[in-house]
């Protein structure tokens, strides 16, 4: 198929070309957004960090969600208070920090806030507490 044939195909099948471009973008977006937001860890990686590196788990959900169930020994600081209360966590700077929210979306933003505060080993839990539960891992109440 020459240039003329390719152009003819594209113009005759514009909908299919657009659909392919959009679906390709949707497949690539998660990798791009992870790169922009920082490091995300799976539930397995999180348990290894907690057990082997004594990682701090930082739950940024609101109080009601935290009370329903949270990861063992999680420190609770709601997202709205994180920037102001980050100095409370200074003693944990040498340890990895795993930021947790309900589904993993807000945790990326909170992890970026923590990195700006000098917590270089900060990760978000991919999929959040929902992924933790889906993996069959326990929550404390």
Task: Walk me through what this model shows.
- This protein is an alpha/beta fold.
- The chain folds into 2 domains: 34 residues; 97 residues, Rhodanese-like domain (Oxidized Rhodanese, domain 1).
- Helices cover 52% and strands 11% of the residues.
- Helix 1 packs across helix 2.
- The protein is elongated, with a radius of gyration of 20 Å.
Keywords for this entry:
141 residues; alpha/beta; Oxidized Rhodanese, domain 1; 2 domains; elongated
Main sheet record:
5 strands, parallel
Shape: elongated
Rg estimate, integer Å: 20 Å
Q: Give the oligomeric state of the chains in this entry, treating copies of one chain as homo and distinct chains as hetero.
A: single chain
In terms of DSSP E residues, the strand content is 5-15%
Q: Number of domains in the coordinates?
A: 2
What's the mean pLDDT score? 86
**Gap between N and C termini:** 64 Å
CATH topology of the largest domain: Oxidized Rhodanese, domain 1
Question: Low-confidence spans: pLDDT under 50, at least 5 residues?
Answer: 31-37
The portion of residues assigned to helices is 40-55%
Provide the structure class. Answer: alpha/beta
H/E topology pattern:
HHEHEHEHEHEH
What is the CATH homologous superfamily assignment of the largest domain?
Answer: Rhodanese-like domain
Strand order of the largest sheet: 1-5-4-2-3
CATH architecture of the largest domain: 3-Layer(aba) Sandwich
CATH class descriptor name of the largest domain: Alpha Beta
Number of strands: 5
Number of helices: 7
């Amino acid at each position: 198929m020459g240039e003329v044939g390719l152009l003819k195909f594209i113009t005759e099948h514009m909908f299919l070309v657009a659909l392919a471009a959009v679906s390709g973008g949707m497949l690539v977006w998660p990798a791009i957004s992870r790169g922009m937001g920082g490091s995300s860890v799976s539930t397995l990686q999180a348990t290894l960090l907690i057990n082997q590196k004594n990682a701090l788990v930082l739950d940024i959900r609101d109080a009601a969600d935290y009370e329903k169930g949270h990861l063992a020994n999680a420190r609770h600081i709601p997202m709205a208070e994180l920037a102001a209360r980050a100095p409370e966590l200074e003693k944990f700077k040498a340890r990895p920090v795993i930021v947790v929210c309900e589904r993993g979306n807000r945790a990326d933003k909170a992890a970026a806030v923590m990195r700006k505060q000098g917590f270089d080993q900060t990760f978000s839990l991919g999929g959040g507490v929902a992924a933790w539960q889906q993996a069959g891992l326990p929550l404390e109440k």
